[in-house]
């Protein structure tokens, strides 16, 4: 999200109207519904996490203990268990 100066993009009468509600503060203007993107859509993060979770499940299925997986992936044991449960539901 980037900030824009109101005076650079809005007509003066709209700025004055907004100042009646918030004078000198910050305001967030949400995206239109048709322009919204789902989490991870702009980056490779979603794909990375999906692959990581499959890898964790495969290692667990091969006999690697939850505690070891937590140490290897720098996650809590409860996070590893959650990932395993989620992966079991996909199969």
UniProtKB/TrEMBL annotation:
Residues 12-88 form the Mor transcription activator domain. It holds the Pfam family Mor. Gene3D superfamilies: Homeodomain-like. It comes from the Bacteria. This is Mor transcription activator domain-containing protein. It comes from Clostridium manihotivorum.
